[in-house]
Amino acid sequence: MYLSDLVIILCRPSEPGNVGAVCRAMKNMGLTRLRLVAPAPGAKTSRDEAVLLARAVHAEQVWEDAETFDTLAAAVADLSLVIGTTRRRGHHRKAVTQTPEECAAFLKCHPGPAALVFGNERTGLEASELNLCNLASHIPVDDAFPSLNLSHAVQIYAYQLFRTLDPNPAPVAGTWRPLDRISQDALVKSISDSLAGLGFYKQRGREEQERFLRDVFARAGLTADEGRYLRNIFVKAARLSSS
Q1: Whether residues 159 and 185 fall in one domain
Q2: Is residue 48 part of a domain?
Q3: Could you give the C-alpha distances from 139 to 23, 84, 96, in angstroms and in order?
Q4: What span, in angstroms and rounded, lies between the C-alpha atoms of 60 and 66?
């Protein structure tokens, strides 16, 4: 599945500001297909649309391309898989549910197209709406305050989907990339050679210390820059000792 295969569906959204925030959350994570089911009357009045666009912030195109349906059945008619988001369980609701991480991993193997369905801000998905879904998904939260803002919920799923489904993630400057084993071994040897030049290994123990350093560096997750900096400290110490 690709991000372009995924549709975000909002059932009976009542707050234009929330819909605008959903558009922004989607655009942040490369999602563009939005469908609304029975939105609150007047959702496209000039006043409400101004509120919506103010919250969309550069994601106006997602709103302009959004499709509106009278029923959820109509909104999912052309889709092969429908996942409903809900925190509630019950006799007439899904007994098995996925976390956002599990949901994204599951969708990665699905050939698409598919939808994630979110319910009304106050009441969530109705049992009849959830029955139209093939799977259920929930966001683990503190039981003392389990209710999430609609756009926040969409953002959590959108982030997981982007991280899982994006085939060509752009490299991010400063991303932590620990040294691989070959680089770790080279760093340990450089430090060990510097210590040997200082006369550190007049007795046995070099092999044991090299193993110790390698294990410490691996657990610390040193980056290439950090390894270079550490190596230079020992090289300089050996140079100063011999001068």
Answers
A1: no
A2: yes
A3: 20, 12, 13
A4: 10
Do 187 and 157 fall into the same domain?
no
What is the full DSSP assignment across 186-202?
HHHHHHHHHHHHTTTTS
Same domain for 212 and 154: no
Residue 191 belongs to what domain range? 181-242
Cβ(139)–Cβ(87) below 8 Å: yes
Q: Looking at 123, 140, 165, which one is the last position of a domain?
A: 165
Q: Is residue 165 within 8 Å of 108, Cβ to Cβ? A: yes
pLDDT digits (tens, 9 = 90+) for 43-101: 555 568 888 888 888 889 999 999 999 999 999 999 889 999 988 765 566 777 899 99
pLDDT of residue 203: 78
Q: Residues 172-227: pLDDT tens digits?
A: 677 788 888 999 999 999 999 998 888 888 878 899 999 999 999 999 999 999 99
171 assigned to some structural domain: no
* Beta bridge partner(s), residue 124: 120
Residue 208 in tokens? 């044991």
AA letter at 31? L
The phi and psi torsions of 114 (rounded to 5 degrees) equal -145, 170
